[in-house]
Amino acid sequence: MNLLEDLVTPYLVVDIDVLDRNVQAMSTLARERSIGLRPHVKTHKCREVARRQVAAGATGITVATISEAEIFAEAGFTEILIAYPLWTTRSRGARLQALSERCSLLVGVDSVEGAEAMARSTRHEGLSVLVEVDCGQHRTGVAPDAVASVAVSAQSAGLVVRGAFTYPGHGYGPRMAAVAAADEARALEIAAELMQESGAGVDILSGGSTPTAALTHGGVLTDIRPGVYVFCDAQQVELGTCAFDDVALTAAATVVSKAANRVVVDAGSKVLGADRQPWASGFGRVSEDEEAKVIGLSEHHGIVEWPEGSPTPELGAVLHLIPNHVCTAVNLADELIVSERGVEVDRWLVIARGANG
């Protein structure tokens, strides 16, 4: 075991105590509200974190791509939802068919054409699907009142419709979480009623995100799919979803230059990612000072600004930066350094890094 101060920056470090606390907290929330938990593993892309989530009570995992599903199936996970409206070509169909023979697989669809293409390319009677519903983000998914036509077409093509899913992505905005949670519940309620009337299966109604999870209650939704909660990030801090003490993953970076109330560190966009919502106060925050902000990024430079009059760190000091969007930061790393009280205790490979297809 090594002290973290011996490592060469930049690197991503996970506080294992905070991680485990976050995992347990979300599992407890879901259990107390009688809601299933299918965490989205695109946040961490690590088998070790997913194993912790399943051990804490998750009923399965969620992924965004076929390649993520293949990697986690190879790692031993048996309940996998691809929460994405796949357009299935012949090669993708073969991969889906192979996956469905290795694990209990659910796949998203959001159009009649997409369902028919999936059925043709898999040639597999019994592939299970969920119809995606748009509950307000207006990204993918059909309107709630159009869900039944997709479900019926999917069944006619030979797919097994298990229900519907949605993503309340418009909850990623100041004071929007409650609105998004209400929209999500209403959209799934409408979808369920119409699907039942059409004779489609509706045993799963899946939704959820990290900002809306605490506002979700039993009733309409059968499970939720938050992802960021395991690590948290600067976006969640600014939205009020979590506190600074709940952030489990940071980027360790060394101060290489300074002037006035600004310092430059050796972690830029190739470490932190460059996501910045219009409402965000910067490109990230700093664990050592809640008032400091990452105000600029180049590929290998991060500019951190302290409030006027506040002392700035010295050259050579190691800071811990909180990425705006932790999912993109993780996807840029080969491994995560795992720490316990400032000591390296493990290294976890980011096994699904770049698994985008």
Q: Overview of this structure, please?
A:
50% of the residues are buried. The chain starts with 10 loop residues before the first strand and ends in an 8-residue tail after the last strand. α6 packs across α7. The strands form 2 sheets. The chain has an 8-stranded parallel sheet. A 6-stranded antiparallel beta barrel has the order 10-11-14-13-12-15. It has 2 domains: 123 residues, Lyase, Ornithine Decarboxylase, Chain A, domain 1, CATH 2.40.37; 197 residues, Alanine racemase (TIM Barrel, Alpha-Beta Barrel). β12 and β13 form a beta hairpin. It is an alpha/beta fold. The protein is built from 10 helices and 17 strands.
**Total beta strand runs:** 17
In the predicted model, the low-confidence regions spanning at least 5 consecutive residues are none
Look at the structure and give the mean pLDDT: 96
User: Could you name the CATH topology of the largest domain?
Assistant: TIM Barrel
Please work out how many helical segments DSSP would assign. 10
Helicity level: 25-40%
Number of domains: 2
Instruction: Using the 3D structure, state the CATH architecture of the largest domain.
Output: Alpha-Beta Barrel
The percentage of residues in β strands lies in 25-35%
Q: Which structural class best describes the helix and strand composition?
A: alpha/beta
* CATH homologous superfamily classification of the largest domain: Alanine racemase
The whole-angstrom Rg is: 21 Å
SSE order: EHEHEHEHEHEHEHEEHEEHEEEEHEE
